[in-house]
């Protein structure tokens, strides 16, 4: 190349660059906006993700038969709510901070909560409103009034319909879908349960119907129909073709810590993929965490005392919304047709705790710097993650997948939660990140984690620091961080739990590991001046333990927990039963249980050698918290030698079926070295005898 030609080519390239710069200056490319990476959410998926928290309601004939799955043969006449009020459901959900309600319009039993033209197995044949009612319609109105969105659960499996399993059912199913998708306004989500095919009533034939979950429902055409009728909907489907949303593989209320909103386009989705998504998946299918306020989905009176506690619900919140999921929390509607007061109380407590924890973002509008800022710094600088605007974000240069931003809190500040959000419109990118705090001039690592996605919340012990450093360690492409939150959540101060094991060691546990615990052993009221709990306390005889949980910084304290323990069970021996597990009955742990073998017909005896003679005035029985082996009729006998027995008390545990709580029975003082608890009958009239705990009351 000659000198002249070099000069000419340089001039040419200069002109080209100038021309390009000039021509780009008015279009978005000059703003250096990042391109999408991998699959991205649709507008409907984005809107759904932003809802974060919404309700499920399970209500059907099952509510009146104490079942979880109706067989399809229950008489619609049993469906007779006396105070059904969808406005009450909507009010509770609204006050709980939820954004919508998904109703079981038809569960597996086939019973329809709306008067479908295509079946008689519905509210039409129930006494409720003389067969003129429409619960889906009532809920649609209530949701509108309270500013909530409505969703529909329509079970693909129908145990009532005679032709289930044949092509005729698909026509029926689509007819019902058409009714639900056209008669009740906008539907934000449709839920197709994965439980499919099996035995049922099937119009009276009472057989077993097997279907191929993948082909039978011809999902692609069913989806087409739904999207035509409800263009703004998202489809949830566990099984069959890929839908818009995925199950997370458990009903326990959590998704994996690592949670990609992506799946493979085809092929099976094993549990591990449901839980974590697929890093390099080809389709955007985010996870929805579904769980109930109680063990069951449908209402059972015996679960009134088993509504999840505030610490449980707060964990669920963090393990769903805090892990790039949404939370679909179920209310089993009770027999009256209402959300039960215990469930209402629980979700309101959760709403209050969430508000207290997350309403003050200590990072909002604080100063921030970054090790890398994408060219066009004004648009992508670190402060864009702190401006409270979900549409702006901190971005790094193309190819930079490792960068830090430092937030200056201005002064030493207490905090214990960190939240990050990616700008997912352009894909989920972050693979791993860490959070550090500047404490006394040194950087201290608070947490290291994997994915972020729409929202990620990290929890760590309270720290006081003036600066926080957030480092992306690895990402699929330049990270786009739309929001950072730093919070100082108050401790959840619920009364601590107090237990004592067989050897007499007392343990006290606060729900928040950061709470301090103070206790007394003499019946006096515990205060912050009482003994501080630092480890198990050895006790030897009758003891009353009272305890409080206290937040050190505010000195706020919980309600007082109190447990009265009788004699120590150290020398107790279970007589004539070889199964070591039987000792769970006296281990002081209400979460462990033991059952007498099912083959053994009731009555069943449980004999305990107390090790020494004592004067008894009563006993306590705690059934295992399930419906099995709950003893309803009993006999209690004492003996001094283990051979000659005297029955000192017998009778029934009233209402134990509906309320399986601790049972306390007293009797005239009787001397005993041995006790015999005889299970005469259980609530199911079968041969199980189950025990969580058995204890005595001495004089
Ligand atoms: C499950 C169903 O079988 C349960 O009854 C409940 O509806 C739950 C939400 O999904 O798969």
UniProtKB/TrEMBL annotation:
InterPro entries: FA58C, Galactose-bd-like_sf, GH, GH29D-like_dom, Glyco_hydro_29, Glyco_hydro_29_N
Domain of life: Bacteria
Residue span(s) of domain F5/8 type C: 351-489, 543-699
Keywords: Glycosidase, Hydrolase, Signal
PROSITE patterns reported in the protein's UniProt record: FA58C_3
EC number: 3.2.1.51
Entry annotated with the keyword Signal: yes
Gene3D superfamilies xrefs: Galactose-binding domain-like, Glycosidases
Family as reported in the entry's similarity comment: Belongs to the glycosyl hydrolase 29 family.
Name used for this protein in its record: alpha-L-fucosidase
